[in-house]
Specification:
This protein is mainly alpha-helical. The protein has helices spanning about 15-20, 25-35, 40-45, 55-65, 65-70, 95-110, 120-130, and strands at about 15, 70. A two-stranded antiparallel ribbon has the order 1-2. The longest helix is centred in the last third of the chain and has 13 residues, at about 95-110.
Length: about 130
């Protein structure tokens, strides 16, 4: 029994863009937090790419959203505000204060550097956000 071709793999549906926007993060900020290129986030949001399990878990952790609220093998039928997740309460807070605090906390947790070890620094910073 051989490996399946990409055409035979089931489609993975994503609500990543909705949750990223609800958390007040740019593609670049989320990409930095999980150590991928910002275009990878775009591919995931447009359902052009299926994430690895490790990447999906990292993204869910950074966004503080259950994995099944982000990715599914079935099309999503409800918007995130009515999904029943405790994480959705952040999107409905008055004046967006909780969103701003969460976003600022993520930004301050991720270190930016122009040195050759910047990727390692971002990974270390992202892993501290995940813990």
């Amino acid at each position: 029994m051989g490996r399946r071709s990409k055409a035979d793999e089931p489609a993975v549906f994503s609500r990543l863009e909705e949750w990223r926007v609800a958390r007040g993060l740019s593609r670049q900020e989320l990409a930095d937090a999980v150590s991928v290129h910002y275009q990878t986030i775009g591919y995931l949001e447009r359902d052009e790419y299926s994430p690895s399990l490790a990447l999906a878990l990292q993204i869910a952790s950074v966004l503080d959203v259950p994995l099944e609220e982000l990715f599914s093998l079935q099309p999503f039928t409800k918007p995130i505000s009515s999904a029943g997740s405790s994480a959705s309460s952040v999107t409905t807070s008055s004046s967006g204060c909780a969103r701003a605090i969460a976003s600022e906390s993520l930004r301050s947790s991720v270190q930016f550097s122009a040195s050759p070890s910047s990727r390692r620094s971002r990974r270390l910073a992202a892993s501290s956000v995940l813990l």
